[in-house]
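During the second half of the funding period, the structural biology subgroup turned its attention to how the target accommodates small molecules. The most pressing case was 5-O-phosphono-beta-D-ribofuranosylamine, which had performed well in the primary screen but for which no bound structure existed. We therefore specified the complex as follows and requested a full 3D prediction, including the ligand pose.
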Amino acid sequence: MEKIRIAVLVSGGGTNLQALIDAQNSGIIQSGQIVRVISDRPGVRALTRAQNAGIGAKVINKKALGSQEAFEAALQKELADCGAGLIVLAGFLAILSADFTRQWDHRIINIHPALIPSFCGKGMYGLYPHIAALEKGVKVTGATVHFVNEIPDGGEIIDQKAVYVEEGDTPEILQRRVMEQAEWIILPRAVEKVSAGMLKNGRDKQEIS
Ligand code: GRF
């Protein structure tokens, strides 16, 4: 069966990457295959998770490369080398230029730890959306999977899942609940949905090397 070749971009712990690996092994993801994990920095746990799963991993060190252009040129080369047709940002913190996202229109998806349009946009990553949700006193937050375009967290929404805020929640407790009850469920589901759609629409042709 043909599958969409998926590159997962990471920057940290890789729990969303792990959810994708587990979903691939359990059959939740059937229309795509993770062929490469790319980190924008060395020494992160996501790289160990890739290694343990036997998936090729590469560090493209944005800081060492020194410019957005050099970083994106190296990224495009790696993506071409592995024949990726779909990019998944899983805890990925580097910014991608409008030029880059235009070249991958509707072929980059991202997981955001809030219900967009709440608590999103520039600077809203990691714990910050959860800090903002607690400060606002919302009773419900959650996670969103969306296509990536030139506006931070501005692309078309693919899926969302709500999570209750509970009495006494700290940002760390809330982050963990949102990951467990939302992110790790909707990201694999969205990857399967988008991959199956790409196969159906024949957008996989250029992916199979
Ligand atoms: C999580 O808060 C996730 O919502 C965001 O990045 C953080 C770390 O994710 N996208 P991971 O454990 O590296 O997948």
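Two results from this model are relevant to the next phase. Residues 10, 12-17, 46, 90-91, 111, 113, 126, 175, 183 surround 5-O-phosphono-beta-D-ribofuranosylamine (CB under 6 Å). The chain has seven helices and seven strands.
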